[in-house]
Specification:
alpha+beta; four-stranded antiparallel sheet; 3 helices; 33% helix; 19% strand
Length: 123
């Protein structure tokens, strides 16, 4: 079956629009805040990446998303966790990583009310 070039480009355009629409998962609430503060630094003498992960887990697990954004500002990336995972969650990624450990901060936020930090990872 031979399709006209115009029909083929229409199909390609529709596919591109669909992919871009689906990929646009950024939560606009993070854009409404002031400039972020850099995360606290945990040097190599404190155990490096693992120590930073333990310290930030202890500090942030159980606190609210609003507190996190108030401290670090808007995240560089918000990823919604797909699938049937309960409870629903999102991952807030901060690229203003710690220069001593090289960590990129990733906070798992449960999307219940109030949105609460479930875990932290140094990536």
């Amino acid at each position: 079956m031979n399709h006209s070039p115009g029909l083929r480009w229409s199909y390609v355009t529709a596919c591109v629009i669909a992919v871009v629409s689906i990929a646009g998962c950024v939560n606009s609430r993070e854009r409404d805040v002031v400039a972020p503060l850099p995360p606290p630094s945990i040097g190599a003498d404190a155990g490096g990446r693992e120590a930073r992960e333990r310290v930030l887990q202890k500090e942030w697990i159980g606190r609210t998303r609003a507190e996190l954004i108030g401290r670090f500002g808007p995240p560089a990336l918000v990823m919604v966790v797909p699938g049937s995972r309960l409870p629903e969650s999102a991952i807030l990624v901060y690229r203003n990583n710690d220069s001593e450990t090289g960590c990129i901060d990733a906070f798992v936020v449960l999307r219940a009310s109030p949105e609460t930090i479930w875990n932290y990872f140094c990536r």
